[in-house]
Every structure is written in C-alpha cells, then in structure tokens.
Amino acid sequence: MATEGIEAVFLETHNWGRAAKFFQSLGFELEFATDHNSGQLRNGDGPYVFIAEVPEDQEPRMRLALKVPDAETFRPDPAVEVVTPFESTHYGTKEMTVRDPDGRLWSLQAPADD
C-alpha cells in the first residue's frame, strides 16, 4: 500500500500570531486556534498547516506528514527503515516515523481508530 501524498506541514515558530497572519495573507484560512499559541490553517483542499509556538531558545523546525489511509493495513516496503511504528498522538491521529536513504525522518499519518 502506498502513501496518498502530503497530509500536513507542521511548523514551529517564535511568534504564533505573526506566523498565522503570514499564512492568512497567502490565502490560508484559520480552521482553529488553541489556547497555547498554536493552530491549524488550510488553503482549499490541500494539506493543512499546523503552527505551534516554541520558546526563543529553541530553533523552529518543520516536518511534513505523508497521508496513509489506514494504520492497521499499511505495510511499508521492506526497504523502508521504520524508526517508530504507528502510535496514537494526542491530536487524534496515528503516526509512524521512517528514515529515507539520506537520514531524514518522515512522518506517516493515518486516522485514529474509531
């Protein structure tokens, strides 16, 4: 079974408000904001962008999550190095981490079990 493209972009920022306004000026709409300086934006039917504020002494990172339709039936090719198997997240999905040939980590995201 293959992935289905990019599901999400996770961004860390030092200023949630400025980052959200930046994406809104590019046509993204705020889907929700949390009470801890983070939120989710989307532009049309494309991947969502989740932005979370981090402390000034922490370097902001970015992570892409590839969409997987079902964590229970997804089996990566044996050539793919699985770093962590699917685990439930605090935000209602399941995620697996894999490593590409150059050492980069990738997240695979599937819906949580109902």
Write the layout of secondary structure elements.
Elements: E1 6-13, H1 16-25, E2 29-33, E3 38-42, E4 48-53, E5 62-67, E6 81-88, E7 93-99, E8 105-111
Parallel strand pairs: 1-4, 5-8
Antiparallel strand pairs: 1-5, 2-3, 3-4, 6-7, 7-8
Task: Please characterize this protein's 3D structure.
- There is one protein chain.
- With 114 residues, the chain is mostly beta strands.
- The chain has a single domain, classed as 2,3-Dihydroxybiphenyl 1,2-Dioxygenase, domain 1 (Roll), CATH 3.10.180.
- The chain has one helix and eight strands.
- Strands 2-3-4-1-5-8-7-6 form an eight-stranded mixed β-sheet, with helices on one face.
- The protein is globular and about 40 Å long.
- The two termini are 21 Å apart.
- The mean pLDDT is 93.
Can you describe this structure in just a few lines?
By secondary structure, the chain is mostly beta strands.
Q: What's the overall geometry?
A: globular
Number of DSSP-assigned strands: 8
| Number of helices in the DSSP assignment | 1
Please give the radius of gyration in angstroms.
15 Å
CATH superfamily: 2,3-Dihydroxybiphenyl 1,2-Dioxygenase, domain 1
| Beta-strand fraction estimate | over 45%
Helix fraction? under 10%
Order of helices and strands: EHEEEEEEE
Give the biggest sheet: 8 strands, mixed
Judged by helices, strands and strand pairing, the structural class is mainly beta
- The average pLDDT score comes to 93
Total separate domains: 1
CATH second-level architecture: Roll
The CATH topology assignment is 2,3-Dihydroxybiphenyl 1,2-Dioxygenase, domain 1
Distance N to C terminus = 21 Å
The CATH class, by name, is Alpha Beta
